[in-house]
Amino acid sequence: MNFISKIMGWVLAQFSGLFGxxxxxxxxxxxxxxxxxxxxxxxxxxKSSAKQAKLKPKLDALKxxxxxxxxxxxxxxxxxxxxxxxxxxGGCLPMxxxxxxxxxxxxxxxxxxxxxxxxDSAAVTAAKNWTSxxxxxxxxxxIDWQAAGIEEVKxxxxxxxxxxxxxxxxxxxxxKLVILDKANAAKDVKKDSVEAxxxxxxxxxxxxxxxxxxxxxxxxxxxxANFISNGGSMEELEKIDFDxxxxxxxxxxxxxxxxxxxNKYWLIPMISFLASLATSLVSIKLQKKAxxxxxxxxxxMVGTSGISLYFxxxxxxxxxxxxxxxxxxxxxxxxxxxxxxxxDVIIAKEQSKSVIMRAKKEQxxxxxxx
Length: 370
Prior knowledge:
single chain; 370 residues; mainly alpha; 2 domains; two-stranded antiparallel sheet; 19 helices; 2 strands; 73% helix
């Protein structure tokens, strides 16, 4: 997956340069072109669906013939597919390939520092670690800092140098960060109550998505210093602009049942939900048109859209914006594909060709007789 993400990240970087390093514009055009590039696989799936649709009358006859004997029906169906040169899994491979490509695209967009800017992994790891430490201190986790030896750590050269270098926090703040860093790095940690609480706090706050790092590195001197000391560059971070009509896509929407707390960042999850729901409903309608006997997937599709709404409130807006682009673009292309290259359209074209071929043969016979 990393290999695909690296390729996609490089392509996204080229688009970023073309569009003034604007992340939103780059993601939209990039997602559009990726979906267009995947069209051959979609068309192959449509051809497979058309072949299966043509066999429906014969399959219905087999059902009537074998009744409830599913074993004989399955065997007869397999023989029919083989005879008609139709693959029962003809649409699976294109879907799997498409899934792998789209996952690679997702990770390239969700991890732009690694895959788009190609910053050294050590710098990214350091920024993530120190961000998790800062989050632990900011959350006010109930750690017995006295038992962890904070008074001694406050006097250490490491803490004094941090205070001298940054000067915006007292010794206690930096001492806590140093304690957390050492607790996380220790290989043989004694599992006493204090260190167990520290490890749990670090683990709880350790999930740091790269999009969030842009803001954290710029606003926290200690995170910035560790990022740079491990090979990171602030000039590289400036190469991406996350503004979208006044929305900072590095921010994460914060849901609250108190709707008076709603803000402009709620737009991303809400639009993501509506786009996903609309695309799902259109997909169901098209599937039912092509295959009326297809199982009803409405409940699952609505549930999936609801899950996407939940996750859009927990991920940075950049990820939610990608989901919006993906839903709208893939849904639009699906409609166009169904209109111009749906199974019923393919069957109609093939039938027209057959009629024309028969007419030609009949005319050739008439010409020979004449």
